[in-house]
What does this fold into?
Amino acid sequence: MKVLKKITTLVLVVAMAFSVNVTGTFTESVKAATEFQITSPSDNGLVAAGYIDIKWNNPIGGTASKYNVYVDGNYVNSTTSTTYEYYTTSVAYHTAWIEAELSNGAKEYTKTVKFGVSKKGLAVNDNMGRRLDPVAMNMGWYYTWGTTPFLYTTYGSVEFVPMIWGTGSENAISRIASSGYKYLLAYNEPDMPMYDANGNFVGGSNVDVNTAISHWYKFAGKSYHLGAPAPALCPAWDSGTWFRTFMDSDLVDKSTIDFIPLHCYYGTYGGAAGANTFLKEVVDATYNMYHKPIWITEFAVSGWGYSNASNRKQVEAFLKTAIEGLNKRSYVERYSWFSFDTTDNRNGASALWTNSTGKLTDLGNIYVNNGNPTELAVQGSAVNKYQPSSDNGSNNSSNNNTNNQPQVKKPARAKISKLKNVKGRKVKVSIKKIKNVKGYQIKYSDSKKFNGYWQKNSKKNTYTVKKLDKKTKYYFKVRAYVINGNKKLYGSYSKVKSITVKK
It folds into this structure.
């Protein structure tokens, strides 16, 4: 019996190996194990705007002393890790490749990976979203107003963003932080009740502002990028007192807030004019108040039922104009339209689909087909010009002859020599001079993570930053640049230095 079991086991193993090889899974695993390559994002895949993890495996020719990361043909940074967090809100197709500098002096290169970036997402609960295919809809991310993602396979490759809807779900914060989620949304419409005076559900989490202020420490200090509470009433409106009170509190460390989510439902106000008002009076106005990246996690036109074709056309014009404007604004990281159901007699004109079938409306087709990544009009080399040109794409660690090297060397890493307060809410930045560079780029923020930042270029190694907020701590980092053809080639950023602005 023991011999029979061994023979049976051997046959099963051989059969399994043969089966795996036939399906191609075995081939892919061998490829992943034997090639130095980018593993994320996937080639020709779509990812959400904001912070994007570029990941790769280890080189095969030896141990890497460091990796050089190139995006859109330009050097962006070096790291000793096999992952790099790259930030962009450019809705376009981007390219990435990695150069590994091995400890034996050789180099290896990955193939170039092309990936699209989208700001568009889905705001869906189970009833709304179960019949949708977010990949086919060109969505980069989704959220459910909850803390756990959908188990539907159609959502498996799309980024999920958890939300702490109200104080009752705060116990999920530690689990979310340990699960590797990149973002967390905080309270949903804390400035609104759950039901209105007539007993109609309006969706607010109804969190007292002083409670939110005293609980904020529970959210802060984790590995994710943290969103502020999402108010129902825009902070720039006279009625937006809840959010302004929250942000004005000395007990809330504003550097812990990485982005601001907004909601907006204009009542029977559509067309391009309505969208432009939304862009200026909600989106731009809030950014100008806080200089933090903006998410619009719910927006739509309310008050029109689905049956009126003329009203639907106004909503379609609103959405087209809004998508164009949101994509153009670099400080807008993400957005998600709120889709009322077509059966909603009061708000159905804003329906992207019918919940019971998942069938898209004309408005839904506009959301799917507009605002998608396009080819970059101007970029560096889209192809890794250093990678071997062999047909099988295998890496060649000896491929490092001088003819393949950049004609212009990137500058040395910059260093801030001094930050000094200057009267009138100014800070003078002094940079250690680097020879043969064309200038310096100064990036500064009131967030330690540089979520929401300002950027200045200077041809001199000193620069005075103006119009800063008094009694506010600012963080600075700088880098030098040279000119390579018609583009700037940047060196590495300096270490971050901080200073608190005096009166």
Remarks:
- The first helix runs from residue 2 to 23.
- Residues 35-116+377-404 form a domain with the Immunoglobulin-like fold (CATH 2.60.40.10).
- The radius of gyration is 26 Å.
